[in-house]
Specification:
With about 140 residues, the chain is mostly beta strands. The chain has a domain of about 100 residues. About 0% of the residues lie in helices and about 35% in strands. The chain is built from no helices and 12 strands. It has a 4-stranded parallel sheet, with no helix packed on it. A 3-stranded parallel sheet has the order 2-5-8, with no helix packed on it. A hairpin with a 4-residue loop joins strand 11 and strand 12. The relative contact order is 0.18.
Length: about 140
């Protein structure tokens, strides 16, 4: 998607299962907000991956890659299961942001998230992308 999550003075928000690519600002931006939870997101080629000011952000199982100047995080720290790998998207130039079957993000998401909507064989883990746990998810 070519938009970002801009969370200003929100009580709370959940940002789950998104692919945020080529945004001229931060992929996720939180300012003076309540608790923000960001899980299973891929954020690539943005100015900053996640930017937070005066906002508690809980993150895990995200992939932040190739954001400007290597600035994946500002005001928030990397989570234990975050990744920093090329996502191997099908064709971002034409907005096909599905993962290729060879992507390291396939079956790499939070194991607590469901996968029952995924077709075919699943390793029991959701993909780190917008299409995880949908019938459009990438099969390995």
């Amino acid at each position: 998607m070519r938009f970002r999550y801009l969370l200003h003075q929100r009580e709370q928000a959940t940002v789950w299962n998104n692919t945020i690519d080529s945004v001229a600002h931060s992929g996720i931006e939180a300012v003076s907000s309540g608790a923000i939870e960001a899980i299973n997101n891929t954020i690539t080629d943005c100015f900053t991956g996640v930017w937070a000011w005066d906002s508690p952000v809980v993150m895990d199982y995200n992939n932040l890659y190739h954001n400007a100047f290597g600035q994946d995080y500002s005001g928030v720290k990397a989570a234990p299961h975050d990744m920093h790998v090329p996502p191997d998207l099908v064709d971002p130039a034409s907005l096909d942001l599905h993962l290729l079957p060879s992507s390291p993000l396939v079956d790499a998401g939070d194991p607590a998230f469901p996968t029952w909507n995924e077709p075919g064989q699943s390793a029991g883990r959701i993909d780190i992308e917008a299409f995880g746990n949908t019938n459009e998810t990438t099969e390995q």
